[in-house]
Amino acid sequence: MSDPDRPAEGPETAHRFSTTARRAVVALLAVAIGWAAWLWWDSRVPATYSVAPTHSGHGAQVGADGVDVVDLTADPDRPADVRMRLEARSATLTNSNGGSFRGYTLNGSSPGPEIRAREGDMVEVALHNIDVADGTTLHWHGVDVPAAMDGVAGVTQDAVHPGGSFTYRFVAEDPGTYWYHAHQVSHEQVIGGLLGPLVIEPVAGTGQDTDADADATMLLHTYPGGSRTIAGVPEETRRDAAPGATIRVRAINTDNVTAQVWVAGADARLLAVDGTDLHKPGVVKNRRIRLAAGARADLAVTVPADGAVRVQSPGVSLVLGPPDAVAPEAPSPAEELDLLTYGTPAVLPFDAGAPDRSYEYRIGQRVGFLDGRPGYWWTINGRMGRHVPMYTVNEGEVVAMRIVNRSPEVHPMHLHGHHVLVTARDGRPATGSPWWVDSLDVEAGESYDIVFLADNPGIWMDHCHNLPHAVEGLMTHVSYEGVTTPFLLGRGSGNEPE
Ligand code: C2O
Ligand code: CU
């Protein structure tokens, strides 16, 4: 086709021009394709690889003082106080909208049974995989278990395949509200229901608030294609409670996104966050309480003399009171309780102002290849896939980390094996109760300063608990110097923790 307004070029000029142009375009294309191919090649992880030096001789040399993660266990000679057998199965389940989906059960139900232990108990849980084809594991979310018991496929154990089993043993040291879930193909198995609540009750007189007359677990979960539920039940769940009784409500957010909880019909106090009691928490009036994905909040709620009280979260509520009592309903309060200023300061177990090491965990996003797949992926400190930083620590160190979210989405950040103390948000210091978390929402544009004591040797995942984000690369590890693992990740390993 030719442009009628343009004088025609001589056939020779046009030919010469097009040849030169074509050569240049071809050369540029070749460079671009070569560059993309190299990026693609470089992003591919080997069929199997280790996150840490291995004893097998293929990885880096391990010093004589190297510790294998499998040896980091609880006292093998101590008998169990709480013993449980959990059978994992694939199942076709029905969601709250009547639709069916491929899900999972533990001992025939989802969520799995509530595990209850007393502070100091030795807990022993034998996981049997009956027929979960991808294999499975159990991770004790928020519990600082010994590293070999952390349940991360490819890091602390191999996935348990159908017919296999794995026994988890740990001491329930810190009383509080926790949960357990699969950490193999976790973005499918957790939403599909391979999870359950875990409560560690305090021993009287050891610190945790024991004023409550009873407690009630409120496990929030949304199954595939369904609406929000409390332990599988949509809309309203009721628990009998006498007028005047104070109930410790243990809210657990097992979803991938933030949950909000508030109370209608009474004031509440927020007793604990992520299993740790807050110091002198005041009355919460007209504020909603945020739970990051994976987080827990324990609320003290007193049943009124003449009615019932309703603990609400969008779409669901837990009513506490006599069987026929009516509980009021309230819209979500406009303002959120700010844990940066809630409660009263207390003495800390270490000097948070003088860390031995400081790290940055900067979350971003860019176009590139993640294990050979082109896309728009998450980055950590600008890098992705196997190039993300691994944070090394030594036992005994106080480690500071600044989490910076330069992406447009919230990320519920979760470090395994440790409780971390929040010291500042956007540079503004925390002035309330010590605020210990294991699951922390970092909103778009926010930065959080956290600090933790490296007192639990191992190799610990440090990832986003919006589990599809972990699949998309928002995952790395905090690794103790000298700790090695014999387990492998990668396509050929059978392990896929995300
Ligand atoms: Cu709740 Cu890495 O997990
Ligand atoms: Cu995320």
Structure at a glance:
With 498 residues, the chain is mostly beta strands. The chain has helices spanning 11-43, 186-189, 467-471, and strands spanning 67-68, 82-94, 100-106, 115-118, 122-129, 139-141, 165-171, 176-181, 195-201, 214-222, 228-230, 233-240, 246-253, 259-264, 268-273, 276-277, 283-284, 289-291, 296-302, 309-313, 316-321, 357-370, 373-380, 391-393, 398-405, 411-415, 420-425, 428-429, 436-437, 439-442, 447-453, 459-464, 475-480, 483-484.
What shape does the CA trace take?
Answer: globular
Give the low-pLDDT segments. Answer: 1-5, 55-62
What compounds are bound to the protein?
CU-O-CU linkage, copper (II) ion
CATH superfamily of the largest domain: Cupredoxins -  blue copper proteins
Q: Count the helices. How many?
A: 3
Task: Kindly give the count of domains.
Answer: 3
Rg, rounded, reads 26 Å
The percent range for helix content is: under 10%
Tell me the distance between the termini: 54 Å
* Share of residues in strands: 35-45%
Strand runs, count: 34
Overall CATH architecture of the largest domain: Sandwich
Rounded mean pLDDT score: 92
CATH class (first level) name of the largest domain: Mainly Beta
Examine the coordinates and then state which fold CATH places here, giving the name of the CATH topology of the largest domain. Answer: Immunoglobulin-like
Instruction: Indicate the structural class.
Output: mainly beta
Largest sheet: 12 strands, mixed
Pfam families: Cu-oxidase_2, Cu-oxidase_3
Keywords: Copper, Membrane, Metal-binding, Oxidoreductase, Transmembrane, Transmembrane helix
Transmembrane segments: 24-41
Domain Plastocyanin-like: 101-202, 378-478
